[in-house]
Each structure stands twice: as structure tokens, then as C-alpha cells.
Write a structure and sequence with these properties.
- The structure is a single chain.
- This protein is mainly α.
- The protein has one helix and no strands.
- The N and C termini lie far apart (55 Å).
Length: 37
Amino acid sequence: MIFMLESVELIPEIFSFYWNFLLLIQDALWLDVNNQR
């Protein structure tokens, strides 16, 4: 039970890290598209 609670607490941290990673990739792709023009 305690392990499950700790896992639930970790979810927001993992999600925020994953979201920031996606934003970085999106910015990189957007810069590539702008540079190709």
C-alpha cells in the first residue's frame, strides 16, 4: 500500500519531465522548419 502511494506521488514529476521533453522537441522541430525556409 505504501509503495503504491509513493508511485502515485512520482507520477506528476514524471509527467512534468515528459511534458518538458515534448516541448523541447517541438521547439527544435519548429526551429528546423523555420531554418529550411
